[in-house]
Amino acid sequence: xxxxxxxxxxxxxxxxxxxxxxxxxxxxDGEFFALLGPSGCGKTTLLRTIAGLEVASGGSVxxxxxxxxxLPPGKRDVAMVFQDYALFPHMTVQENIAYxxxxxxxxxxxxxxxxxxxxxxxxxxxxxxxxxxxLSGGQQQRVALARAMACHPQVFLLDEPLSNLDxxxxxxxxxxxxxxxxxxxxxxxxxTHDQAEALALADRIAVMEGGRIRQVGTPTEVFRRPxxxxxxxxxxxxxxxxxxxxxxxxxxxxGRARLPLPEDARGQVGGGERLVYGVRPEYLDYSPTPVPxxxxxxxxxxENLGSVSLVSLDVPGDDAxxxxxxxxxxxxxxxxxxxxxxxDAGGRTSVQVVVAEGGxxxxxxxxxxxxxxxxSLLYRDGDLVTVAEAASxxxxxxxxxxxx
Amino acid sequence: MTxxxxxxxxxxAPPGPTGPTVAVRHVLAQIGRYTFLCAVLGFFALPLLWxxxxxxxxxxxxxxxxxxxxxxxxxxxxxxxxxxxxxxNSVYLAGGTAALVVVFAALAAYALSRVRVPGRDAxxxxxxxxxxIVTGTATMVPLFELAFRLNLIDSRLGVILILSGGLLPxxxxxxxDFMDSTPTSYEESARVFGASPLQIMRHIVVPVVxxxxxxxxxxxxxxxxxxxxxxxxxLRGPEKAPAAVIMYTLYxxxxxxxxxxxxxxxxxxxLPVALMFVFVSSRYGFRFHGGIKR
Lengths: 404, 294
Description:
The complex is a heterodimer. Chain A is α+β, with helices and mostly antiparallel strands. Chain A folds into two domains: 4-228, Rossmann fold (3-Layer(aba) Sandwich); 231-385, CATH 2.40.50.140. Chain A has helices at 43-51, 93-103, 108-121, 137-150, 167-184, 195-201, 219-224, 229-234, 400-403; strands spanning 4-12, 18-27, 32-36, 58-63, 66-67, 78-81, 155-159, 187-192, 204-209, 212-217, 241-248, 251-254, 257-260, 274-279, 284-287, 295-304, 308-316, 348-356, 366-371, 376-380, 383-384. In chain A, strand 11 and strand 12 form a beta hairpin. By secondary structure, chain B is mainly alpha-helical. Chain B has a single domain, classed as Orthogonal Bundle (MetI-like fold), CATH 1.10.3720.10.
């Protein structure tokens, strides 16, 4: 009943910036939904458009059965928690939590009761008479959440809910937030630029870039099968390895190695075609001795990440069949800033691999890495080569920013 | 020189000529600085000292001296039919102007701070420039003419309107700065909860910028309290004249300034403003509670 549906949603600012570009999105009732993307991708604008703080230039927003596109924020039955929490500094915690009810003309006694009850749920009972300035960051955030909960909205909108907390508190708040959302069961949309936060919290994620949605999916889908090189480079604490490759019969030539063609791509690619081969560092197995079907190279950097180490290898390029002008074959892998390792001028490619503790090589060693079966992907012009389905993702934008 | 006779640690081998010399120079510099400060302070404090002593002096002169204590001056002042009522008149004018200025400046500043008006800054600076002329001596003739046409001669309303007009641009300028530094997320937050613009103004904006409103109010009162020219020209009789104008009439029969009355009246005249400053700063103080995590 409180699903959110957006159709052709467009927002063009007066200065001509096209923040949202004919965006279609459906958020299911009770879902915990993340809008993820780099800064300036339009995710906050989208959230504010749902809230009604920005007026859409085109398209529509529905909450449940109601068309709210032209309703003012107060009539949409949503509650928003701002990045800076925006607690009113001159009011006590109790007055802050009760403020939405004050607007709804609930009488003073009922307001105080409701505030006390909500505060109790969030463990704020001892702080009711304090002012926001006297609270810690975590407490302020919980007051902001309590204020949003007090009016029982159909939708919660959270703008960067964890970004103002310090690292340790952030983990705590993350767990707290996820449990709270599960218990309340209210449709919740949150904005974040932190992919780890999105993966951890959300039921589904929309990855945005340049006012468009590049992929929508569950955290698993987005992590395992990024629909394009942008998402591949954005999701994951270590970016996906993206290496130039060439199809040769039933095999793939990557550097000097020959790897089996990923299952999805069978029958989708032609011989001799130049593509981008993608595999996550987590899905590569390192071996200090030669193994068949492996990429080999020299270990350059070893970064200790605690229980695992991130090892960077320099893999020599496919110099046997280096064709002139092949730079175009990588499509927008490089231009979308995929963050992966595009081959450099010398035909060398950097490949990163996660190595479990105990097996770390030292820089200078020669190592072999084998992709795990079913975990490698192929990208043609920046988009995933796969069997059908992925076509539902909007096409990459073409000069969208210019028209406005 | 003095360094060699320094009493500190004569046993240690080299006395280190720099150490004591530096210390002495430091002390001399301190003494010099404080002497200078005392002189400056005395220079500025003397008039105030005169204001504090002269009203209680039997025969005040233009110099500050230990008074021959008496309260006769106050009795003499009370005999003046306009002295006390003029202070009340000053309160009317100052209060009316301050109220008008605070209300309108707050509304204008909020709008200017939140709404994109083309040429907003130019407008503001232009107003600020012109406002220094409006209540200035240069425009007194046209202002008098205007007040005459509008039947506002010898009316307190006329004085209040003209003084407000002069103070508003600067007040808007000051308050706009306060409004600009208030995060918009407060208001957006209230909007999402369904608050109307007037509710947002009343519940959120006014309390948050209260220090700014207090500043502007105090500033407006102080300005009107000290203004002589506008009420002097626009108010005809002494019944409506404020204290600044009545002070001008305190002469002896010989046409000389009556120092006994003048000093006493000056004291009474300055007290309300001083009290207001104390009250406002203790009541509203210039503090900001926080609540935005930066």
